[in-house]
Design goal:
Chain lengths: 335, 287
């Protein structure tokens, strides 16, 4: 089964989609595709078959999202915790992933036509090398597409992602690119695997579980959460519509909370900058109190230099990440 | 055409609102109806029927009987009842978060919820609202809790006293070390993760450790502030907004979210229902 499903919506679906689209639409939807194994058990299928059907449902959901003008989708494909499953199942999932990413490479023309950019979020080092290389190839091939975005979280947990972001910032400090005092909420967000995406507006979890299971904890703090009881392979267009209506109902209050949070964040940053200035002037030791004008100038200068530092660091980080993928690709070329 | 679609959308949203209101109204109706039903069943229990054949049934009735008594008249009830309810549950969370996503806050209702949680046997309760109002007025909340304690579970203070943990100023209201209350605001969420990150980066700056040493457990230890409070297993969310609104992003990895429509005039039965739902959930932890 392929990644790209062609085909239009039927008449009723199209009308419903048009109705929904007159309201505020989510720009980024995240899915926890739960219930593949329960589905297999229910239908007396092999476990692997359940995972297969789950993947097919993903392709179908991407098609719906495209028709609903949702440009970005993030899915939780494999958690670091999933390595704890039986070897047989983990191997099966790795094999499935390998097949699917190979398939993705075969379909590069269709991906280019639809402008689909595929990103993989997670620590690839935990995966078998051949899978790493295929994933890297897929990521590099679709890197410049910019109409729709699919983020696949693989070997991912949110705590690991946050820790990794802290590690990257510490790396920046070691390299002398930034100072420890430059660490802020905005910078941490930029160091996450998801730094190229806006935060999800809507998070959908299927199969009736009501927890996040270490998925996008940082990014979904102001997202609409919808828990649906349907198993993932049975997910339908109408389930998606229902979730979007939930989002539309919550839109105003969540937007307000986001605004509030943004204001607080800006205030925090200003305070941090002020504290740094205060410390600097203390170190310089000229005891005479500067007048307001001078202080304001010093603050502006400090902010400008901090921003320049942070930009340099983010450039370096981006380069480091890009070359990780390119290196993996060139390794395959050699072998 | 677009106009028509827009109108239809508005109509659809209106329908969903109506449905929501109807469900909320039904809940209230159902509750009062159930009270009457239980009265009848209790009356039936006095008939010489061999109840011992239906042990589960009996347990359930007594459970709800207690609930009704507690919710029906909020004054002097037997303080051991909630504890019995707690023991009847298969699984009880150690740490419960109460998250209010509503504009108007009611200190009395939140205080009753805290007292009920603790009386049932929950060791840690966190209270959160995304404007940080509860945290700003934590002493008011504390007073209200003491008042509700007297009212709801009687004067058995030694058993159910509350300790308010306050990280900013070291003002502890220590009466006993048993149940603990923490009042949270968005400050305790991402902000505290950033603080921890800055701390780690400072230590890297001073060459105390290398960036490669930083691990999930290291960050976790820092965020726990060495108090060893477990992550909340359950967050009860009050209000119509389906979002965590910044509630402790690091700590809610495995937290179950269960919603109630409002915290105003919430009853003991509502809370017990949520706890029963929680105790029937099972987690596979990635397996």
């Amino acid at each position: 089964m392929s990644w790209i499903k062609e085909g239009e919506l039927n008449l009723i679906e199209r009308i419903s989609a048009n109705i929904l689209k007159t309201g505020p639409m989510p720009k980024h939807v995240a899915f926890i595709m739960d219930g593949n194994r329960r589905f297999a058990r229910k239908k007396n299928l092999e476990r692997q078959e359940g995972h297969m059907q789950g993947f097919n449902k993903l392709a179908e959901t991407l098609r719906w999202c495209k028709h609903l003008n949702i440009p970005e989708v993030t899915v939780y494909a494999f958690s670091i915790e999933n390595f704890k499953r039986t070897k047989e199942e983990v191997d099966g999932l790795m094999e499935l992933a390998k097949q699917k990413f190979e398939r993705l490479l075969e379909e590069r023309e269709a991906l280019e036509k639809h402008g689909v950019c595929v990103r993989v979020l997670g620590d690839l080092n935990m995966l078998p090398l051949d899978l790493q290389q295929i994933i890297a190839k897929a990521v590099v091939t679709t890197r410049n597409h910019n109409k729709c975005f699919l983020n696949v979280c693989f070997a991912y947990t949110s705590r690991y992602e946050i820790t990794n972001a802290v590690r990257e910032m510490a790396w920046g400090v070691e390299q002398g690119l930034i100072k420890a005092s430059d660490v802020s909420e905005a910078l941490l967000s930029e160091c996450l695997y998801s730094n190229n995406s806006p935060n999800p507006d809507l998070l959908i979890r299927t199969s009736g579980e009501v927890r996040l299971s270490d998925f996008l904890l940082w990014q979904t703090s102001h997202s609409c959460l919808v828990f649906q009881s349907v198993l993932w392979p049975e997910y339908s267009f109408w389930n998606l519509c229902e979730a979007i209506i939930q989002y539309q109902l919550n839109h105003k209050s969540i937007q307000k909370a986001r605004e509030l949070h943004r204001e607080e964040q800006a205030l925090e940053q200003l305070e941090a900058d002020r504290a740094c200035i205060a410390e600097l002037t203390q170190h310089q030791g000229n005891g005479k109190p500067a007048d307001a004008q001078k202080r304001q100038e010093a603050l502006q200068r400090y902010i400008a230099s901090r921003e320049a530092r942070v930009q340099d660091f983010l450039q370096a980080l981006k380069h480091k990440r890009n070359s990780f993928f390119s290196d993996l690709c060139s390794e395959t070329a050699l072998t | 055409m677009v106009l028509l679609y827009g109108l239809l959308w508005r109509f659809l949203l209106f329908l969903v609102h109506v449905k929501r209101a109807a469900v909320a109204w039904m809940r209230v109706r159902l509750r009062s109806w159930r009270v009457r039903l239980w009265e009848r069943t209790i009356a039936a229990l006095f008939l010489p029927v061999s109840v011992s054949e239906f042990p589960n049934y009996q347990k359930k009735t007594t459970l709800n009987q207690n609930a009704n008594r507690l919710s029906g008249n909020r004054t002097g009830t037997n303080p051991s009842r909630p504890l019995a309810d707690g023991k009847a549950l298969e699984k009880l969370p150690v740490h419960v978060g109460l998250m209010v996503a509503e504009e108007e806050l009611s200190y009395t209702d939140i205080a009753s919820l805290v007292v009920w949680c603790m009386a049932i046997g929950v060791s840690y309760v966190s209270v959160y609202d995304n404007n940080g109002v509860f945290q700003k007025n934590s002493s008011h909340l504390q007073e209200e809790i003491l008042r509700q304690q007297q009212k709801l579970v009687g004067a058995d203070e030694s058993k159910h006293s509350v300790e308010l943990l306050n990280t900013d100023q070291d003002q502890h209201f220590v009466v006993s070390c048993r149940p603990m209350l923490k009042v949270l605001s968005p400050e305790d969420g991402k902000h505290s993760i950033v603080q921890a990150a800055r701390k780690l980066c400072h230590s890297v700056e001073n060459k105390e450790r290398s960036s490669k040493d930083i691990s999930v457990s290291m960050l976790d230890d820092l965020l726990r502030e060495s108090k060893n409070i477990p992550d909340p297993e359950l967050v009860v969310k009050f209000g119509p907004v389906n979002s965590t609104l910044g509630f402790l992003p690091w700590h809610i990895r495995l937290t179950e979210f269960i919603s109630l429509p409002s915290h105003r005039n919430v009853s003991y039965e509502d809370l017990l229902g949520v706890l029963q739902r929680y105790s029937s959930c099972q987690q596979r932890l990635g397996q």
